[in-house]
Each structure stands twice: as structure tokens, then as C-alpha cells.
Amino acid sequence: MNQVLKIDPNIPITDSRKIVDTRNFVIHSYDSLKPDILWGIVINHIPILKKEVQALLGE
Prior knowledge:
Layout: H1 2-7, H2 16-28, H3 35-44, H4 46-57
């Protein structure tokens, strides 16, 4: 997503910068990551992201 934002910072993905920040937190601070927060992201945000990516791909 970070590379995509460099090419098109206005990509129609909700909270695209937060996606990059979350990835960095998971990768670099995994020892302090709380499972319930990660699960909340999976349940609440991944379905929205999936729909937005499908729309971009024309599916």
C-alpha cells in the first residue's frame, strides 16, 4: 500500500495511510500487539477494504 500511495496519494481506499501504519506496527511491535485489537481490525475493516479493492479491480 505504501508503494501505491507514492504513485497515487488520492487512491480511493479508506484510511490508506492507517493501513501502512498498522502494517508497520504489526511487523515492528508485534510483541505489544493485543489480539483483540488485531481481531477488531480483521472483523471491522478488512471487509470494507475488500469491497474497495474489488471496486478498483472492476469486479
